[in-house]
């Protein structure tokens, strides 16, 4: 099996998980930095839109490493999606495929269903709720919780931070409620 074939296949949890987990000690050892993605939006706003807003008045240049990190994630995702993606349709359980078909979701050729996440679906009520309202709620929740899931669940829990434990528990409860109670209703629109 070639290295390209290995990269294209999904990696098992026992390899991908420790690789993600190793970012915590590496960031702490290299520069006493915390892992998180949501703070980079604040850094971008502070750098690009200098306004007289106290929230953006800080030395964002000290956090420029985070911008390079996010830029690396963006380009890594672009390269993976365009040059290293598996050409086969996404494999999902037959029961899930049948359930999704009842909601009109039958295209499993991409990373996300085109019937939910596309420019055409954005103009539907279901697509607007999923993309715009969902995006707003993610941004609001991230700000309200003081960080995103990667910052709290990966970095905060590994540092034994109580607020991160509370935030991660709330993220999980919210995810279960969404998946089991709210999402079926939205998909039926």
UniProtKB/TrEMBL annotation:
Keyword Cell inner membrane: yes
Predominant place of localization: membrane
Localization, UniProt: Cell inner membrane
Record GO cellular component, one term: plasma membrane
Pfam families the record matches: Sulf_transp
Membrane spanning stretches: 12-30, 65-84, 123-145, 165-187
Keyword Lyase: no
Keyword set, alphabetical order: Cell inner membrane, Cell membrane, Membrane, Transmembrane, Transmembrane helix, Transport
Membrane topology: Multi-pass membrane protein
PANTHER family, alphabetized: INNER MEMBRANE PROTEIN YEDE, SULPHUR TRANSPORT DOMAIN-CONTAINING PROTEIN
Similarity section: Belongs to the TsuA/YedE (TC 9.B.102) family.
Name this protein carries in UniProt: Putative transporter component
């Amino acid at each position: 099996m070639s290295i390209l074939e290995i990269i294209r296949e999904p990696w098992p949890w026992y390899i991908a998980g420790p690789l993600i987990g190793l970012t915590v000690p590496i960031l702490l050892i290299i520069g006493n930095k915390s892992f998180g993605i949501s703070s980079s939006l604040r850094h971008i706003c502070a750098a690009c839109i200098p306004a007289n807003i106290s929230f953006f008045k800080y030395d964002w240049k000290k956090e420029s490493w985070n911008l390079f990190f996010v830029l690396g994630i963006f380009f890594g995702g672009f390269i993976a999606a365009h040059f290293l993606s598996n050409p086969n349709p996404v494999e999902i359980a037959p029961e899930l495929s049948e359930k999704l078909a009842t909601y009109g979701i039958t295209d499993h050729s991409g990373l996300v269903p085109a019937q939910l996440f596309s420019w055409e679906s954005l103009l539907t009520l279901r697509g607007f709720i999923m993309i715009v309202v969902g995006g707003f709620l993610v941004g609001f929740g991230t700000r309200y919780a003081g960080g995103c899931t990667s910052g709290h669940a990966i970095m905060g829990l590994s540092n034994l931070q109580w607020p991160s434990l509370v935030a991660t528990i709330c993220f999980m409860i919210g995810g279960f409620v969404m998946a089991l109670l709210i999402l079926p209703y939205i998909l039926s629109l």
